[in-house]
C-alpha cells in the first residue's frame, strides 16, 4: 500500500502556532501532533530521519530503496511518492518553508542549494555515530518547539542548519532502480507538479512551469519521454493539460478577483498581456475582458 509521507491526513492540520510556527514543524513519523493546517506541499521542504523499516522513494524515472537508517531531503518542487513495504518507517521528520531557514538578511534560497537541486541525490545513508548525532538534534528541535521560550525558533533554525551541514559533509550512497509502470508514474507526477502551481493566490505570484520542457526538467526526464507517457496514460498531450489548467485558472481569476488583465497575465506566466489575450482568444473565442463580463 502506498504511503506518501508528505501528504498524510495527520499532516494536513495546522492551527494556532506562533510566528515561525507557521513555517516549521517537527514530529515523529506517524504521530498525531504532526499535522499542518495550512500545509501546502508546494511550500514546504522536508527532512526525514529514517531509523527503521523498509520503504521506497519513487520519482518519475528512478526509485531508491531505503532499507537502513538514512537522512532523506525532499523539495516541494519535485513530485515524489513514498511507498512503505512494512508499515510506516520509524523516525522523525521536519517540514519548513524557505523563508524559515533563509531570513530577509540572507539572500540564499533553498531552491538554489545543491542539496535541493533537480537531480540531486536525496538519500544519505548514515552510520551509528551519525544516527546518534542526528537523532539528538531532532529531539532537541522537538523540545524547543514545545517550549515557551521567546526565541525558540532562532534555536531551531540553528539546529536545522546543523542537519543540513551534516548532509553537505556526507557523500550519498544510493542505488537507483527503474520503477514499474514508469509511464503511469511519470504522468501522475507531471499532473501533480502541474496542480501544485495553483491556485495563484497572490497578485505577485507567478507559475514557474508553463511548457512541457519546464516540467521535463523538473522531473529529470527527456521531454519526448514525458510527452509520450502523458499521451499514453491520459489520452491527452502534455500541452493540452497545461493549457486547460491555465485556462481554468484564468477563468477563475477573471470571475472571482478584481485583478487587472495584466496582473492575471503575469501570474499565469505570460510575459506580455497581449500574449495572454491571444491565448484566451484562441481557446475561448473571446478576449479576457469580454470573458470577464460573460462570467
UniProtKB/TrEMBL annotation:
It holds the Pfam family HTH_18. Keywords: DNA-binding, Transcription, Transcription regulation. The keyword Glycoprotein does not apply. InterPro entries: Homeodomain-like_sf, HTH_AraC. Residues 214-294 form the HTH araC/xylS-type domain. It comes from the Bacteria. PANTHER family: ARAC-FAMILY TRANSCRIPTIONAL REGULATOR, TRANSCRIPTIONAL REGULATORY PROTEIN. This is AraC family transcriptional regulator. The lineage of its organism: Bacteria, Pseudomonadati, Bacteroidota, Cytophagia, Cytophagales.
